[in-house]
Amino acid sequence: MAIVRRLAWLFALLAALAADPLRAVSPGELAGRWRDAGGGPVAEFRLQPEDGDRFLVTVRFTDGGRWDLECVPTGRPGVWAASSPTGMLDWLFARRRGEPLEGAPLFWARAAAGGVTLVLYRLAIAPDGGFRLDRLALTPAAEGLDYDLRILAHDRETVRLAGRLVR
User: Fold this and answer.
1) Residue 40 belongs to domain with CATH number
2) 17 or 50, which is more confident?
3) Number of domains in the chain
4) Which of 53, 68, 118, 142 has the fewest beta carbons under 10 Å from its own?
5) Using an 8 Å Cβ cutoff, are 107 and 130 in contact?
């Protein structure tokens, strides 16, 4: 009997590891439009599933900043390459998408906490080599979507801000 229980545990673990991480964090709980529930730095979050494991994300910040991202699978489970659409200025100044040493921020996303939390990252490198790393973790909660925003820059202490979004 003990061996049967161990095999059942093993199969359950393998099934959990093989589960599609985006399905765990997105369609039922993260998909759609979310708004700030009270004075936090994230004004709005939108996630729109696309074909396969692709999805679109928009994050609007209260300071006027905005991330418009297309997230595509990387071949690593639970990790997506995320890029911001290039515009005319990027073309004029020969900036390539996702090249932080050329002035374009690098974005990526991953499933964390067993596929329950979606984490978005943004890395920007200044002309002098200094950096800024933004990390936005989004986790479904009973009354909405909790987020944890951490901002790490080369020349200052880490800033940590948290809040809640509601539909």
Assistant:
1) 2.40.128
2) 50
3) 1
4) 142
5) no
